[in-house]
Each structure stands twice: as structure tokens, then as C-alpha cells.
Amino acid sequence: MENVNEPKTKLDEVKDLIFGPDIKSYNDQISELKNHIGQNREEVMSKIEEVRNKLIEAIQTTEKNLNQQIADLQKATEAALDKQKQSHVSKRALNDVLVKISEGLRSDAE
């Protein structure tokens, strides 16, 4: 059995053959890339949250504006309908007056 405390084991020698002596450099670069990816992920998640909040705010503002426009249109429609009803009543009253005048004229002519 080999001594585990040997400075360089056979496994280390195989790693050196496969990857070369720069394996530590590769490991350091991979660690650096992982850290960079982690930082970018945090930035991206922060920006996503910021955009999400802005979208929610925009949706709420749009909803508020649409509700106000609907209320304004409803009031305008009701006002137009009331005006139409008043106009219709006036026409009916005018018709009734003209009928009475006509009947009065007929009875005077007879």
C-alpha cells in the first residue's frame, strides 16, 4: 500500500499527464468564472425584480386610467340618455297639445 502523505501520488501524476501542470490555473479560472456568473445572476435577478415592479406600477396606473375613462363615458352616456328622454317627453307633450288643438278646431268647425 502506498503512503498517502507522499508529495505526489500516482493520481496526481495521471492528472498532470492529462491536464498538464496548469490544472491549478484551470481550477482558479473556473472558480473565478463561477463567482462572475453568480454576481451576474444577482444583478440580473435584481433587474428582473425592478422591471417587474415597474410593470406592476404601469398596469395599476393603466387600470386606474381605464376605470376613470369608463366612468367618464358612463356619465356622458347617461347625460345623453337623459337629454334624449327629456327631448322625447317634450315631443310627446307637444304632440298631445297639437292633438287637443286639433280636436278643439274640429269641434269649433262643427
Description:
- This protein is mostly helical.
- It has one domain (10-109).
- 88% of the residues lie in helices and 0% in strands.
- The chain has helices at residues 10-19, 23-109.
- The mean pLDDT is 85.
What is the gist of this entry?
This protein is an all-alpha fold. The chain has one domain (10-109).
List keywords for this structure.
110 residues; mainly alpha; 88% helix; coiled coil; Fructose 1,6-bisphosphatase
- The total number of structural domains is 1
Number of helices: 2
Mean pLDDT over the full residue set? 85
State the major sheet: none
Number of strands: 0
Shape: rod-shaped
Q: Spans of 5+ residues with little confidence (pLDDT < 50)?
A: none
* Alpha-carbon distance between the two ends: 143 Å
Keywords: Coiled coil
Protein name: Fructose 1,6-bisphosphatase
Coiled coil: 23-83
Q: Topology of this structure?
A:
Blueprint: H1 10-19, H2 23-109
